[in-house]
Design goal:
There is one protein chain. By secondary structure, the protein is mainly alpha-helical. The protein has a domain of 27 residues. 47% of the residues lie in helices and 0% in strands. Helix 1 packs across helix 2.
Length: 68
């Protein structure tokens, strides 16, 4: 049983990665260039933050002034 609620968990997102970034995320080690994996993770985190913020805006509490 899954008790964790992931907002928009089934929504699809698009992330543009280079082939090297994709390989780094798949487990290939670039010993001479650690920045490849860092760049790929940064891109993934940015897309995840955008999706999280979007859900936060969609489920934001209603202001008291609009309850009248």
């Amino acid at each position: 049983m899954n008790l964790t609620k992931i907002p928009n968990g089934d929504e699809k997102v698009t992330v543009e990665l280079t082939v090297k970034e994709l390989m780094a995320l798949a487990g290939v080690h670039f010993h001479a260039n650690h920045d490849v994996k860092v760049s790929a993770r940064r891109k993934l985190n940015m897309v995840l933050e955008d999706a999280w913020e979007k859900d936060g805006k969609d489920n934001a509490p209603i202001s008291y002034q609009f309850l009248n």
